[in-house]
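Handout, page 2. Input:
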Amino acid sequence: MSEHSNSLQNNFFNWLGGRTSAAQLSELFFAYPEIEKFAQQIGILKEPLFKTKNLLAISLVKKMVETHPTFHSLYKKKLRKMSEAINFYYTYLCEQATQNKVKQVDIDSISKPVYENSDNVTYFHTDSQPISLSYFEDLQPIDNGWPQLYEKLMQCLYEDYPDTIEKMGKSADTNAFFSSDASHLSRPIALSDKLYLEMNITTSQIGKVLQKTLDECLVDYENIVVQYRNN
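Output:
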């Protein structure tokens, strides 16, 4: 763990100090570097633990502490304290996320109206911005809105289900969004040298195309987790 203090770490330990005794706090303090070291070794953490505040990332660290057999073998005498330590940090981040209004949404909700009458339709995506995407627990930050999330998720799906998505490019229902010929699209990006994805679409269309693609690839929506923040 980095020796340099940061505001997240300081704020967390101030919060933790109000919930534990001095002896407990000392024991927990020494658990975090070992959790961080193992999580970085197996690739779960890319950044130091106390520079990671994404709930999806920390939930994977929590799962590691609870279930990873090598971690259990190495720290079998400290498992209770390790579990207690990561659960405290996860709880702290959950409280912070609630205060900052970070939420999760299912893919099938992106294009649904949340308010509708005869004069106006307001969609979920109109007042929100995605901040991360988890695809089968592979966490990716999103910092450029719904189009970036769309591009990243489509790249993940194409990597795993190329034949299915290439067939969609030949279907009348979806060939406006996929094509083997870039000149047929107004703003194409390459998924491969065989298929291009149309990026000149609305966010409502993004939600619908993602749903259709997940359904065609037989991917359960629960394997895709999007965190977002209201504008």
